[in-house]
Amino acid sequence: MNKKLTWMSVLIVVLLITVVGCGNSNKAGNKGDKIVIGIDDKFAPMGFRDDNNEIVGFDIDYAKAAAKEMGVEATFQPIDWKTKESELLSGRIDLIWNGYTITDERKQKVLFTKPYLKNSQVIVTLTDSSINSIHDLAGKKVGLQSLSSASDALDANAIKSQVANVSEFPDNVLALSDLKTKRIDAVVIDEVVARYYLSKDTASFKILDEALAPEEYGIGVKKGNEQLLNNLQAALDKINADGTAAEISKKWFGEDKILK
């Protein structure tokens, strides 16, 4: 009798531990008490490495604030931006969060939060360049980040058929480097990124007044993980409403650019 009670007690304890453990691992819709966020660590000012090789940026601070609200820890995983959706679908990361433009094509692959920031694709050239409008790209060599929304914006514009060639780069830093050395004539790039680099080097670059395409940033979540999506959106709504997001925006952009 006592032996049977002992085994029954052990079984009950094991079941309780299993239930509690499962409850903790799913409290945010991710594994455990961490959210792994996939980023391009050369995408200033959204997410990049500073002089001390620390990952910093607007999206980094925004993600940390949202994670704190959710009661989890945000960890950042630099990835090859060309494979971002594959990284998400494989489960190696929980979120794509680094200036990730919402597009109809991407909506077929991932779930998106509500947009949180407006952006556009702009054209950057050298300050002494004769390129002053989109039409001036005819016959010119254009660079952009591979598999980015910059490529989509250029493809959607009639000028694409008139440019001499398009070079794709792993990141915007390399594209701007080739522009500076005149291996290419212009770069199609996110406006928020372009303005950051212009603030660092006003002598070298200029942004054309015409933009290729307006767009909005969102956070990508694996399809089927509605729990994480809903919990994340609730946290974003909270920090957007209480002024936390506005302060982060002012820190990086000098103004409140958060979409409410």
TrEMBL record:
Pfam families: SBP_bac_3
Domain Ionotropic glutamate receptor C-terminal, chain residue ranges per copy: 34-255
Record keywords, A-Z: Signal
UniProt-listed CDD domains: PBP2_AatB_like
Ranges for domain Solute-binding protein family 3/N-terminal: 34-256
SMART domains referenced in this protein's UniProt entry, alphabetically: PBPb, PBPe
Source superkingdom: Bacteria
Name of this protein: Polar amino acid transport system substrate-binding protein
Organism in which the protein naturally occurs: Paenibacillus turicensis
